[in-house]
Amino acid sequence: MNAHRGANTAGPAVAGGQGVAALGDPRQVQFRNFGCASGADEAKLYKGLGAPWATQCMFAKLLRRMSAPPAVATNTTNDHIPAGYTYLAQLAAHDIIRNSSLNPLLAANEAGRRNEREQALLLDVLYGDGPSSNPGLYALPKVGEAVRSMMRTGPMASPSATAMAMPAGACPFALRDLPRFQPGDLSDGFENGRTDVLVADQRSDDNANIAQMTALFLHLHNAVAAALSASGLPRADVELPAGAYLFDRTRRVTTAIYRSVLQNDLLPRLIAKPIWDLYQANGFLPLVDTLSQGVPKEFSHAAYRLGHAMIRLSYVFNDQHPEGEGLENVLLNRSSSRPHKFPISERWIADWSHFFEIAGSTPQFSRRIGPTVNEVLLSAYTMPILCVGPDSKPLDPAAAVLLNEVDKAALPDPNASGLLFSDLVRGAIGGLLRLDALIEKLPQAVLATSPLLGEAKKRSQGIQSWLQGSTVAFTAAELAELGENPPLLFWLLFEAATEQDGLCFGATGSVIVGDVFMARFAASRAMIEDDPITQDLAARLFPTGMPRTMSELILFVATALNLGNAWPRFITPPTTPGA
């Protein structure tokens, strides 16, 4: 990693990795189809039922079916994936994709949309363009330093009247949030609370969980910096101004830890084991899509969104509020929606033992992946303007009232027209490959792991049988279309439930996600994992090996920043003797 560029910008130009193809200027191809250097044959793209109104009517029924309670009580808890991994995956996804715009309307198209994340999995989501270009993200430099090297973090509010008393031996640690501020004396006037967030990517404050996850990685950077300073980090590069050298070396190690955890902890949980075994046998290189530039639409519009199915109905952040926070509050607890709720209260501070298995803790778990998602995501962010009318033109709420009763009944249910509806719409207008065209690209080794991918008739029968398992009445054309040519997002959810009992992605989802990550790891491995400077620093800090799991990452942060007895709890101290 070029030291100057590491301190001032997002990082160096990505070098092609072995087995990974490059396309030249990454800005020339922003979104493309899976396994294609550019757009695929128009005939192979998903179009739904053709007319936007007909497709919307089909989606409305599909959403009603997906919201129907199962005929037999089923276990929705996924004890294979603790709840924190949902938001680690969201952080990583934000580090791959940053959309220039979103236009989720069936009558629209996305021809002009681009990915503003030119490099992936280098923690640009955390660092932005570095302390020289984005100084507001960084703490003021120490005396004698010309460049900022530490990440800013934000305070929590004073303990509420109902807060638990700090136990004996605990140490207060209040800087547990994203850095937020109140622009009281600026041109936009005064508003109660913290309206703005100092982050490289505003999606880092999309909900309370991703905000805490981002804050954790801010702490990771500061922990690495503290550990490097304590180790007597040599000042060898005299060309860099004071502070820049520490930032550069810290970013190298922090990024290496992050990528180690993604590859060794997150991805093996998300990807089906038979597919993971294929990646291991292939040297952790892509199985199909070897292009490191241009994001496959099948990832950005479908596989990337499987995490929505993993979201719980409530989350317990710490023992101070054991009844937990409902999902709607979790989604809305952000500066853009509730600035008056900030600085953050103690009830929203993550004790990471509740989100990951740490020193024997039993965390809360994510939801199993499948086509029956929780009701909050079906209704949250209800956006009637997304709908089209019978003329396939945008339908605003006033015009919807004037529709005849038959057409009104065909509109998406207000209780099932939220985030999942917008995900389906984006998949319909985004130019994704049809499922049969996608299957054609999969190697025999992948097809052999799936009972459905190689048998179109069996696949269609399975989908149609599930669709008919409720009172929702589909037309023959809708049943045929959904069975033979399902929206990719729906197929990936159905596949995960059918093949893996919802514990991880199915074969198709595993390959799409796996290839996107593997290609980007390989493309930048030379400046992270294979970089001699990073290797030397990692060996200095971690003589027995770099953290490979979230548990190890969190324990390192707790040790380096003396947070083992922090209050509010950073982690729950182990209760087992000798643990």
Q: Could you characterize what this model shows?
A:
The chain has 579 residues and is mostly helical. The chain has 21 helices and ten strands. The chain has helices spanning 3-8, 52-67, 84-94, 124-127, 208-230, 244-270, 273-281, 297-300, 327-332, 375-379, 397-401, 405-410, 419-429, 435-439, 444-447, 456-467, 476-484, 488-500, 507-524, 532-541, 550-560; strands at 31-32, 77-82, 171-172, 180-181, 196-197, 295-296, 314-315, 325-326, 365-367, 566-567. The strands form five sheets. A two-stranded parallel ribbon has the order 1-6. Helix 6 (244-270) crosses helix 20 and helix 16 crosses helix 17. The two termini are 38 Å apart. Residues 1-18 and 22-28 have low confidence and may be disordered.
H/I helix tally: 21
- Which residue ranges are poorly predicted, with pLDDT under 50 across at least 5 consecutive positions? 1-18, 22-28
What is the gyration radius calculated from CA atoms? 24 Å
Total beta strands: 10
Coarse shape: globular
How would a crystallographer describe the biggest sheet? 2 strands, parallel
The pLDDT mean sits at: 88
N- and C-termini, Cα separation = 38 Å
Strand order of the largest sheet: 1-6
Percent helix, as a range, is 25-40%
Q: What is the beta-strand fraction?
A: under 5%
**Class from helix and strand fractions:** mainly alpha
